[in-house]
Fold each of these.
Amino acid sequence: MTAATGIGARVLRTEDKRFLTGTGRYVDDLPLARATHAYFLRSPHAHAKIRSLDAAAAKAMPGVVAIFTGKDTADAKVGGLICGWVVKDKHGQPHKAPPHPVMALDTVRYVGDTVAMVVANSHDEARDAAEAIKVDYEVLPANVDLARAFDRDVSEVHPEAPGNLVYDWEIGVKADADAAFAKAAHVTRIDLVNNRLIPNAMEPRAAAADYDKGTGNYTLWSTSQNPHVLRLILSAFVLGIPEHKLRVIAPDVGGGFGSKIFCYNEETMVTWAASRVGRPIKWTAERSESFMTDAHGRDHVTHAELALDKDGKFLALKVDTIANMGAYLSTFSTAVPTYLYATLLAGQYTTPVIYANVRAALTHTAPVDAYRGAGRPEATFVIESIVSKAAAELKMDPAELRRKNFIPATAFPYQTPVALQYDSGNYLPIIDEAIRIADYTSFESRRAEAKSRGKLRGIGFSSYIEACGLGPSRVIGQLGGGVGQWEAAQIKFNPTGNVQVMTGSHSHGQGHETSFAQIIHDKLGVPMEQIEIVHGDTATTPFGMGTYGSRSLAVGGSAIVKATDKIIAKGKKIAAHLMEADVADVVFEQGTFKVAGTDKAVPLGAAVFAAYVPHNYPLEELEPGMDENAFYDPSNFVYPSGTQICEVEIDPDTGLVEIVNHTAVDDFGNIINPMIVDGQVHGGIAQGVGQALLENAVYDKETGQLVSGSFMDYTLPRADNVPSFKLGNKVTPCPHNPLGVKGCGEAGAIAAPAAVMNAVHDALAPLGVKHVPMPATPLNVWQAIHGGN
Amino acid sequence: MTINVAMTVNGKAVSGKVEARTLLVQFLREHLGMTGTHVGCDTSQCGACVVHVDGKSIKSCTVLAVQLEGSNVLTIEGLAESAEKLHPMQEAFRENHALQCGFCTPGMVMSAIDMVKRHDYQLDEATVRRELEGNLCRCTGYHNIVKAILAAAPAMKSAGV
């Protein structure tokens, strides 16, 4: 195919023009005639009984259309929100599943918990009325300190989960790990807090709903990464609206990073209330609501131990983690610290024995769920922190210790001791390339030069593995996942030869309209400008699982390839008929069917036309039309890998950490569009740097108030907090999907925190500093240097 | 109580009845239906709402519509010369993959143009990064935004815009 626009080409994005000219169409942009506006009254307390709620005065306020409370939804028998992944604890018992009502009934459980919904003619009127609702709270003690969540004196979030324990889960055999540790020449121990993050996609969550009285059909526009899954949950579990009477549209969506996977109460309420109000309802979160109520990420407290032999070979790893679930179990929350975390603890290494114990805790904080990387950044942070610490303790080069323990390229497919079978990889050339790009070998001269300026310079490695491209449905089901994890595609040619490709994936920044079109162009030879990628509407796209876990290309792209195969197979039959040739002799090359060794040729467009105007067509054998569906269920996860090297300079007087170099070398398998892939890595690294240096969701330990509840208190990385990044790549194609691709969306965020923190520790090592908590803010660094609180 | 307000937006005279508390961004989005200007926060931090007023970039969430009586407002919708011919800054964003989800993009582009002009088309990376303090992006890690602005500066100069 033409090198300029096919697979592997740097094609400028199709979607850019509308975003650059202000003609993108996000949920809040929708012009809905006669729309009302919703505003949600939120709990100001982390934990309280609602003694009484008086909305009489609010109902009389100007413009108010309706006010709904938890009692209204309970009376109407609205279902609770669900957690769609059942994790069985170490005794085989399913996790504790406390109810999650769409609005609080008699108890509020975190700051931001929803108390009432006001619908008014304008947003301002709805907000004014909400302020007039009188709620009498009996404030109760809040439990927001994760490390103490299981203590006896801590208040319980739900009676259904005694002691705030959702599950006590393990993987591996503890006795085996203990036996391996008994033989160790050296044991490295580490205590880590993986700081809590707030995703903060730039577009706040939003929902708008309309109910058509004549047909009984609902339409919900939602900032969703997976509109079909959202519809399924709303239909089957929460609202009971039959799937075929509910259309969910996720139009342009301004970033997700996981936070827009889940089924939230606001979109549920807007849909439910639309039929009661009889007018469309729009809701858009204010940023402070995003901070309070978007599902947060990370939030682990971990103790880990690594056993090494006298040569530095890893013998065993033991990990003990408490994972915060927040006040309610969000849609996929239970899977994140188990199957997306502990199964990754082998990293890139041959560690033969691994044991992990994970306890999930309820606290009076916002729900915690998948955020860019989801479990895998937490695993990478544990592994790569302890490996670098071990190298420092053993006075070994951190690259050398990694190399010594890498799974060799000849060992793939490689069965880890924690369930996963890595399909492919080649880690040595990656770290070597990263070392070359980062000029690691001359680092010590840079350290010395920095010292002459009074700065502390350090360098840190992070070699990550991830399992993504979710996933084989059978495996997901065995592990307790409630859904299949295939993807769907439909390729619909129009009679004039242009083509619409419907995908179950959803693009909210990833550039599918370009990458997916490149696949079609490459496989079928259709010019790029004649290809339309359609996504995000349950009425026009086939049921699909959506976009998260770096799955769109590996799974959704593979479904598209399968559909192109069907198009070609049918086209061959049509072309054989038109050319009066045997179908076995027909080949398809660069958009044209040919008979080998002859000058007979039928362009795909001619075969398509014949299929829609079948005047000369094998109607006895073939249906007319050129419209093919495919579903693709992967046989394994995909396993991208890479090494990041971060170089920092620290001002010991202020504690300020500056990243002076950041290198990332990744193996994403084959690459469709290198420009888009690099962009994904840039953004991922910035989020990882944010976690390492800047971002921290803080709840006041006494009151449970969200202290970091705005962009003035929660430090999102700004342009001057990050450098320009240095990227490289190596390719080992994925052996089990037709494109040979692996996912690239999360890698940057998975590897970066450990790279940065290892660099910080390396910089401070000459001062004898052993531990800096993440994020390494100036305060935390200064205190680590100078001691004290 | 509503107040009449009249101004020029993207070269066209517009007017409307607004509440005293109506922000410029609300006037643009809700009264004029011009939804290219976005709201990404409630503390004037994110910069998704940046427009030009009388040639200078401002955050349209931080100014009341009634304050701009008689002003000349330029939004992202009015930037391109035509559907085919983008402003050099828009073109540079596209060429350099400086946008992903597109939500911060209108504000980024409007800020960037003002930045280039204030620095007389002479920018270096450190200056661009410092000047972007008021614009948040969660997708790109800023890498390609910085590249795009550095590339757009000479392009704007030669295009005379």
Note: Chain A has a mean pLDDT of 97.
Amino acid sequence: MIPLSFYLVLSAILFACGVAGFLIKRNIITIFMSIELMLNAVNLSFVAFAAHWQVLSGQVFVFFVMVVAAAEAAVGLAIIIAVFRTRETLNVDRVNLLKL
Amino acid sequence: MLHYILFFLFAALAVGGAVNLLAQRHPIASALSLIVVMGSLAGEYMLLGAEFVAAVQVIVYAGAIMVLFVFVIMLLNAGEEERSLKGSKVAIAIGVPAMLAGLIMAIWTLTRHNPANTPVGVGAMYGPAIAIADQLFRPFLLAFEITSVLILIAIMGAVVLARKEEQQ
């Protein structure tokens, strides 16, 4: 039997890694992957709480988070492709103007 | 005992993958370590008895979403990450104390006797697909239907954004 807090600490560590990646990475695709990592960390605490309180709503929420993540990945990657087409770069430091 | 071994195995894999995601310079290496994180999180979900979520995690996250990422990385021919043009002193000044505070909080949570330290019903197989479906199609039916609209909009948005501009 594993205490709930173990899951929460693991989730917190993964979320912190995601935040760190979001802040220190310069490649726009890697930044995007860090966001996915944060979503995954939140999902883990959702499932842990669902198992802890024996309420299934938590797992249904994970399902919705996954749907939103999939939609976000599709649109986000399309935006990345559009940005790359006009700027020829994936470095976020070089994408700092709205106007070309 | 076996539960603990499995938990720490998957936890170590997940944290190792997450740290590797930060350490690697090449996006494809980061993507592969993210797949490791997602796979080991599926293992954690199985430990928690969420078998449906574990299956969806592997199929949707490690399968579909990461394939999309790898596809885009290869399409754009993304190479090694450039070094940042300017380092941030503020990030270090705030980040290091924040990390220490987080570490102290984690240790405090793990050692202190609180309600959250009661064991989770591991391996109780709570959350089979039939129970999830019962929730999804009864209390969450409206949200479920709205998600289909969201997916539709996302598909159209992706098509419109990634489409090549016609030459005038």
Note: Chain A has one domain: 4-94.
